[in-house]
């Protein structure tokens, strides 16, 4: 055998590098499969959701304040983030900070599994076909994965929003609409049929597309940039920096759509399941801006950002740690 043939044989046995890959191609691990990624995503999301849920409830209450004032036809003393959270504890009790957690966790059984599983599938598809993952392709994968996941999980999100607002409604002397997640589900179907479970799904999907554009795309892109540029190991420091950036970008992009989504989903419906206050997301946008100004679209931004940052951090650290525990490498 010639020296050239020996050299070629040795090269074939070495790990192959993609042109812009941050590490050699590793053997396929079972944790990289779609269903294992799905389960890991759901587990990590449930940890993150439970840890940050009070901020989500506070954010939802803040987003409804102006709408309540308009319904009452009189000025309303607006509360800030801290005052809203303390008011919930004082007026309704500490446990009310976790009101609606159950449907929120049910939502992640679909939402987080589908969004991460789909994003991972598309990411592998893009890399396999072109040997690269550009920012544009990463953005396309994030938007597609988030939109699909949120559309499938929209019924659970609708139930969660209605449960979150019940404590406030009762303090205002309004008649309770629902008593539990199961009751809320039945009432929604009773009023609007199966189709009623997707009330507010359009702004919901729009929000999810922006959230995942900010979260998945930013996390994936920032992590690769840091590792490739500064030659850092794929460890907790990189995960933390990437998560913080992802949470900030996601909050900036998603808060306006989140306000619209919350108001459309929280509004009462008539006997046909149609919204009483808003005809849809565009109508809600126009009425909100005309009555409360553009600033209203960023109501709840601070708790949204404060929640998204630790949520993203907790999720990605949990996700990466579970993968490492199973013997797989970094995501």
Average pLDDT over all residues: 82
Please report the total strand number as a whole number: 0
Radius of gyration: 23 Å
Number of helices: 10
Overall description:
This protein is mainly alpha-helical and 331 residues long. Helix 2 (34-72) packs across helix 3 and helix 5 (135-171) crosses helix 7. It has helices spanning 3-13, 34-72, 81-92, 101-130, 135-171, 181-192, 201-230, 236-266, 281-292, 301-325. It starts with a helix and ends in a 6-residue tail after the last helix. The longest helix is centred in the first third of the chain and has 39 residues, at 34-72. 43% of the residues are buried. The radius of gyration is 23 Å and the shape is globular. It has ten helices and no strands.
Fold blueprint:
Layout: H1 3-13, H2 34-72, H3 81-92, H4 101-130, H5 135-171, H6 181-192, H7 201-230, H8 236-266, H9 281-292, H10 301-325
List key phrases describing it.
331 residues, 72% helix, mainly alpha
Please provide a brief summary of the model:
The chain has 331 residues and is mainly alpha-helical.
